[in-house]
Amino acid sequence: MAAPQLTVHDAAATDLDPATLYAILRLRVDVFVVEQQCCYPELDGRDLEPATRLLWAARGRDVVATLRLLTEPDGSARIGRVATARQARGTGLAAQLITRALELTGERPVELHAQSHLAHWYERFGFTVCGAEFLDDGIPHTPMRRG
User: Which of 3, 52, 65, 90 is the most buried (most CB within 10 A)?
Assistant: First the structure.
């Protein structure tokens, strides 16, 4: 039997069925809270903002990568919560999601806080460092901007 086809999606959280939303949030918790041992409020309310888009890649019903695209009060966009399941890392899924997020933002400026060891990876999408490195839950992060 062939493996389920990979599909890429984006939607507002309020438009998702409960099982899909649960799978997205579980992946984020699995990566950030459990694997990276960061104790922080993963459910911060921003997923439910009307302009927020959740992007995810799925094999069948299994969510294997995700990110969150926010609209900030000044109209700029912010990419965050970029997570890929351990077994799917290195397969280009995060790049597909970043590419789709940038398509959705159009010409708007986009910011993100990259885990510092991934800053060079984000540079390939046109992001540049826009501030000093900082620690977030003990993990070095680098602020980056595009546009």
Answer: 65
- Tell me how far the alpha carbon of residue 66 is from its chain's centroid: 5
Q: How far is 146 from 61, CA to CA, in rounded Å?
A: 32
CB 108 within 8 A of CB 75: yes
**Chain segment 59-94, per-residue pLDDT in tens:** 888 999 999 999 999 999 999 999 999 998 988 999
Whole-angstrom distance, CA of residue 142 vs CA of residue 96: 21
The span from the CA of 137 to the CA of 147, in Å, is 28
- For residue 3, the model assigns a pLDDT of 66
- Locus of tokens 């460092």: 129
